[in-house]
Amino acid sequence: MGDVAARFAEIVGDTNLLAGEAIPEDYAHDEALTITPRRPAYLAKPETAEEVAELLKVAGEHGVPVTARGSGTGLSGGAQPREDSLVISFERMNAVLEIDTENHVAVVQPGVTLSELDEKATKAGLGYTVHPGELSASVGGNVGTNAGGMRAVKYGVTRHNVVGLQAVLPTGEIIRTGGKTSKVSTGYDLTQLIIGSEGTLAIATEVIVKLYPRLPHGATVFAPFETFDEVMTVVPKIIASGLAPHILEYIDNLTLAAIGYNEKLSLGVPDNIRDTAQAYLVVALENRDDDRLHADIEELGGMLGDLGAMDVYVLEGNSARRLIEAREKAFWTAKAAGADDVIDVVVPRSAMPEFMRRSREMALSREAGALGCGHAGDGNVHLAIFCKDTAKRKQLLTDIFALGMELGGAISGEHGLGKAKSGYFLELEDPAKIALMRRIKESFDPAGILNPGVLFAERA
């Protein structure tokens, strides 16, 4: 294996290849709560797609598993390497190559973080709209998991905002898919197949993303409700109104109390309402015209009042920004509170009240907790699970995932399966679909070196 390390070092340079105990602990895991860190055998930091291709060729020749890594902010164990593996880190491939103001796209390398892309796009009056809650996340990592976030209700998730890729196949071939065009109907859509494949089919080395004009005026409406069912009754009516919110979130009372405490957030909610409300709705609107924005806010406020909101608060400027930032930190709040796992089941919007009610009943029957918040506008439920007993927790999650699928949903809406949720996927998903996915995997990766253990891992 020393020869393998030498060949990797020849490709990326001695200073960009680490092995064994020289590899920092950070590269042994992502942010998944249930995955044990594993230090890889090798860590390479390439600078070009050609170097990535050469690394994969050598890995394939010697049967070395390969895990691609962006910022390591994932929540499903997709970036957890095997102990005999090569981690390819994209920290040196972090350039914004182009901001194209005529085609409204950006061309970026996979290691570019969302904050770096946002900074460059802002200077051109544009913005990238996928914000999964952690701005240190990399664009390449977002491609791997098909990341979403709060703005997906208006702008969609990663797959709706990526129009082209440069990618390296595990055989070492470099391909380009899609481009700067807004549509394509020529053969299989390889761009969309690679997005969300969690590094199991190919490794993206360049990404073309859509950019949108930045709207200068925005405000956030915050409304408490006595029950969660009332919140979810309001959601389809807001969407049907044509107001086009770019954020439409729910937060349960305990989660709001926790994030409010952690972030020292004061929203001016009187004690009598705070003690009674079970859930809160957060709706953010934007417009290019300030008068039109305020007309929309007035219409929304009236609608919420008519539909049972206990009160309506309009937040602008710093207050609105701090509430959204606090919501984005809900995972860290749950982790600090001792959550044993986090899940992100997605169901049709109309099924959210039943899913929430039954999943909480399942948790209570096992003396566990299921608390959280989520993207009310697109049915993506984020729950922090509190259940110390491993066997009980696995059965609880199996039942919750099965419930989500029974209601027409899926195990994950945006975190991906990684290694943390693959076992549930194999147990609950249609075997014919799994067999088809295996054949796709084998077609792309005949040697099986890309991210083994993700998607097709056997349950522990």
UniProtKB/TrEMBL annotation:
The record's annotation in InterPro entries points to: FAD-bd_oxidored_4_C (IPR004113), FAD-bd_PCMH (IPR016166), FAD-bd_PCMH-like_sf (IPR036318), FAD-bd_PCMH_sub2 (IPR016169), FAD-linked_Oxase-like_C (IPR016164), FAD-linked_OxidoTrans_Type4 (IPR051914), Oxid_FAD_bind_N (IPR006094), Vanillyl_alc_oxidase_C-sub2 (IPR016171)
Requisite cofactors? FAD
The keyword Flavoprotein appears for this protein = yes
The segment(s) forming the FAD-binding PCMH-type domain are 35-214
A single GO molecular-function term is:
FAD binding
* Highest taxon, organism lineage: Bacteria
Keywords, alphabetical: FAD, Flavoprotein, Oxidoreductase
Indicate what this protein is called per its UniProt record.
Glycolate oxidase
What EC number(s) would the UniProt record show?
1.1.3.15
Kindly give the Gene3D superfamilies that the UniProt entry links to this protein.
Answer: 3.30.465.10, 3.30.70.2740, Vanillyl-alcohol Oxidase, Chain A, domain 4 (1.10.45.10)
Entry annotated with the keyword Oxidoreductase: yes
